[in-house]
Amino acid sequence: MNKMLILMNILLTLPKRVNRQNQEYRFGFGGISERMIHPFVFYVLATLIVGFALLVVTVRNIFHSGLCLIGTFLGVAGIYVSLHNYFLAATQLLIYSGAIAVLILFGIMMTQRSWSLTSRTHNSLWLIGIPVSAMMAFLMIRSALTLPDSPIKTVWENLLQAIGSVLMQVYVLPFEIISVVLLVALIGAMALGKESEEA
Amino acid sequence: MFEWVFLVPLFPLVAFLIIVFVARHFKGSKISAGISIGLNTLSFLLAFSIFVSLMHAVGHQVYTGPLEYSRPWIDLPGIGGFPPLHLEVGVLIDPLSTILAVMVTLISTLIMIYSVGYMAKDPGFSMFFSFLSLFASAMLLLIFSNNFLLTFVGWELVGLCSYLLIGFWYKKPSAARAAIKAFVVTRTGDIGFLIGIVILYWAVGSLNYVELSKMDLHSHLLGWMSWGVPLLIFCGAVGKSAQFPLHVWLPDAMEGPTPVSALIHAATMVAAGVYLVARSYFLFIQSPEALLTVAWIGGFTALLAATMAIVQWDSKRSLAYSTISQLGYMMLSLGMGSIGFVAAIFHLLTHAFFKALLFLGAGSVSHPFHDKENPFDMHHYGGLSKKMPYTYMTFLIATLAITGCPLFAGFFSKDEILSAVFHAINTPSHLILWGMAIFTAFLTSAYMFRLLFLTFLGKEKREEHAHESPLTMTAPLMALALFALVGGWFGWPGHSWIEGFFEPYRALYPIAEHGVDWFGMGIGATVFFLGLGTAWVLYGQGLRYASLMEIPVVKTFHHLCIRKWYLDDFWNFVLQVLVYRLSGIMSWVDANLVDALVRMVGNFTGWLGQVLRGAQTGLVQQYLFVIFSSLVIILLILNSGGHWWIVKP
Amino acid sequence: MIGVVHYVILSALLFVIGLYGAMTRKNGISVLMSVELMFNAANINFVALSYRFRDVAFLAGQAFPLFVIAIAAAEVTVGLAIVLSLYRSSNTVNLDEANQLRG
Question: Which of B112, B114, B122 is nearest to B474 (CA)?
């Protein structure tokens, strides 16, 4: 295990590594360099995310549920910003809040006739699902609490460049495979849609 | 020269493979026969040149001992009480193996030539030749192998070929039955052979003939093993060489094509038992009990089979009983100890030629009668000597040879055996054996001339279409007749070439010198003429034996012989009562106890499946629920450090 | 100070909510949305924990969500196509009515 970690370290630190142990931490949201998120902002974001997520899984009107999903995605984008990964935040906005949300809303609208506000929205597991999920949450949080806390501070001056070079050097094979996967998904989706038309 | 000996068994094997995979598919041509005969001839030439070289070596006293060429086969360390396993694949060249190889290759080549004519119109022509080639290969492997295990491999292979060839016309129910009978009966003996090999290896730690023959077996084979091991190995020989009580398969084996009867069931395979005893003679010679058993079984078989041969109306069956009888002679001779060793081998060789000739002659006679229900039934025959002059002449020579007419082959070899038995007389038991042997010689003469007279003399039976066989059939007859005529001269009393050739064995098995045995020869000639006279009186001038049947004793005796001394019935009884009844019990146990258990396992699985199929609801979300609730439970158990009922914070 | 643990707890909550939705919602599209929530939880974990293991796997944690997003996009495409074809064939998007694989 140790050897694997060391190997990964070597692989992942190809560009020049900057070590800034003694940094000055300024509180605030966003910004460019070593700032940490203000707890208040974090809790607001977290409340938004969890609240919207709960609405997604509980709300009766599935269209509202889709809209709440967009809210969750936006909140997660904010979380990424607080984690200093602005590129990921932008990707989240574009792909999740943009493309995937629109896709899902289209799907909801295309299958509009099949649901109604009067029918039940949950299946027979709705009650027993709660303790199981709660137990799961309990276990996960308990194990998270055993984790030593680490501050959130930037390590890379120019993170996007570093990610880019990692993608094109270390992860070039997964990167290419992902493109094939997307192509396959595209063709698969078309095939599924077309087949049902004929049937 | 000698290192090429492995090619001798290989050539016929190549012929077999070529025919099976290639030549068989060329319909209507005789290419298979060409391949078989060609490669067998090569094999014969090689064996013959090895034989000549060896003869030269023996003649000039440069032969120092058996030559071995072997490769390791299996090498395993010892386990438990068992010694380390060193098995080898190798060939052994000594006078015994070489002279038999020459005989086998020569006779198989001649019989293949004969088969071209005999099997000409058979649809299985190619397969017949492939089986014959495989048989020749296996037989040569058996002969040349240098250890018991490889001999056993060849032994089983010739058994397989015998099965295939007896049942060659497998659409005939009697042929199929005969094939199975031959296979099962010989296998019965082979079990003993195999057990003997295992015990021998366990006790001595070697299966190599040369090593074993140089060892002091008395210090290894203790107690019962000293006679038990040779007798177990003799079991195999009893089965293969059709000795009492396992002789019952050989007469039925005559259902096969005649060339098969001639090659396998007269000349070569059935002689393998004699060869095996001769090859492992070092085991027998150290145990007087084993030798005496061999002698008694051989002598008794010889007499018993001769009595059965004399009442048969089927010419081939009669010859089959004659074969059993002659093989009994060889066993008897081997049972006399080292004094009869060479005589047995000599008789084996001469017998191979004249008995093959007799069978081929019988086949040639039956050839025009192939549309009869049984072409070998002698009721159809009579007065064929003019229609088939060549067959008649060769058959006559063979008959004179087997009956021991002076100057013919059988006279010398049988005389050797009789004089060996005579010289071995030192107990009453040997005296009885000698008397049995003499009486058998008389019977041999009688039944063979009966066969000859019934077939070729007497009145013709309006068989207008009886004709001489084609040249491919008569030419091998004449070649074999030559050997039947002069074969015995190799053992001319006083100037015996064969004893000179087997001189090297004198060191192993000391042979008492005895000069020209005029007494034995006189007895042999006398019983020959007695038998000839008896046959002439009863069968030569019309069938006069009917009046003899009026005598009650003769009638009873005749009835016993016809019923084969109730031995077939005995074996049937054994099968019915013991084997089938035991099988019935076993079958019941299997069906109601073992199978029930197995079925229970199956039924339980089915029931479990019926129960568990309820869990397969097809609803993905339920699966997800089960997965995650299981995960929760597992994590709780893991986190509680084994005390899963206590949920730690 | 807000550290890695806060983010991990947030992600755990988000994951469990997604799990509950995936287990209990009848509507196939709702289930897809819940799965998206779980994906997001995983992404948050990746990025947050890269700070915890910043000496060995910082860039890996930062770059991996990109792959996850790509996979999620593909998943949602195919998933929606399946739901639509289910809708066309049996005129429903309720997963508890799609039990043709029942044993």
Answer: B114
- Predicted confidence (pLDDT) at residue A165 exceeds the cutoff of 80: yes
Residue from B620, B629, B630, B638 to probe the interface with A (highest A Cβ count within 10 Å) = B629
Q: Report the pLDDT averaged over residues A132-159.
A: 85
Which pTM was predicted? 0.65
Res B253 pLDDT > 50: yes
**Residues A110 and A47 reside in one and the same domain:** yes
- Length of chain A equals 199
Query: What are the tokens at B194?
Result: 């195999």
Per-residue pLDDT averaged across B128-140, rounded? Answer: 91
- Residue A18 forms part of a structural domain: no
Contacts with B622 from chain A: Cβ below 8 Å: 125
Task: State whether residue A135 sits within 8 Å of chain B by CB.
Answer: yes
Residue A62: give its domain's CATH number. Answer: 1.20.120.1200
Contact criterion met (CB below 8 Å) for B506 and B401: no
Residue type, A64: H
Is the CB of C34 inside 8 Å of chain A's CB atoms?
Answer: yes
**C chain contacts of residue B614, beta-carbon cutoff 8 Å:** 103
B33: confidence class by pLDDT, cuts 50, 70, 90: confident
Length of chain C (residues): 103
Task: Report the complex ipTM.
Answer: 0.93
Under an 8 A CB cutoff, do A182 and C73 touch? Answer: yes
**Based on the domain organization, do A110 and A161 belong to the same domain?**
no
Over the stretch C36-77, which tens digit does the pLDDT of each residue have?
999 999 999 999 999 888 888 888 999 999 999 999 999 999
Question: d(Cα B403, Cα B535) in Å, to the nearest integer?
Answer: 12
Q: Which domain holds residue A166?
A: 157-193
Q: Which of A77-91, A152-166, B575-589 has the highest mean pLDDT?
A: A77-91
pLDDT at B406 over 90: no
Give the strand pairing for B67-76 and B85-93. Answer: antiparallel
Domains identified in chain A, total number: 2
Please indicate, yes or no, if residue A75 is contained in any of the structural domains.
yes
pLDDT at residue A9 greater than cutoff 80: no
Distance CA B457, CA B312 (A): 17
Contact B617 C19 (CB under 8 A): no
Are residue A58 and residue A110 in the same domain, yes or no? yes
pLDDT reported for residue A12: 46
> What's the CA dihedral at B186, B191, B197, B202 to 10 degrees?
180
* Beta strand A26-27 pairing with A35-36: parallel
* Residue found under tokens 């295939």: B164
- Best to test chain C binding among A40, A100, A125 (most C CBs inside 10 Å): A100
Q: Is residue A24 part of a domain?
A: no
Nearest residue on chain B to C99, judged by CA atoms? Answer: B618
Q: What does the alpha-carbon distance between residue A128 and residue B628 come to, in Å, rounded to a whole number? A: 12
Say how many CA atoms lie within 13 Å of B478 toward its Cβ. 9
Q: Which of A62, A95, A114 is the last residue of a domain?
A: A114
What fold characterizes domain C4-91? Helix Hairpins (1.10.287)
Is A45 within a domain? yes
Q: Which of B186, B200, B349, B219 is nearest to B275 (CA)?
A: B349
Q: Is B198 exposed, middle or buried (0-12, 13-18, 19+ CB in 10 A)?
A: middle
Interchain proximity A136–B636, CB inside 8 Å? no
CB hemisphere CA count around A118 (13 angstroms): 1
What's the rounded mean pLDDT across residues B232-247?
Answer: 89
- Burial of residue B623 (CB within 10 Å: 0-12, 13-18, 19+) is middle
- Residues A53, A106 share a domain: yes
Q: Shortest CB distance from C73 goes to which of A73, A80, A99?
A: A99
Q: What is the largest CA-CA distance in chain C?
A: 54
As a whole number of Å, the CA-based R_g of chain B is: 30
Residue range B411-416: mean pLDDT, rounded? 85
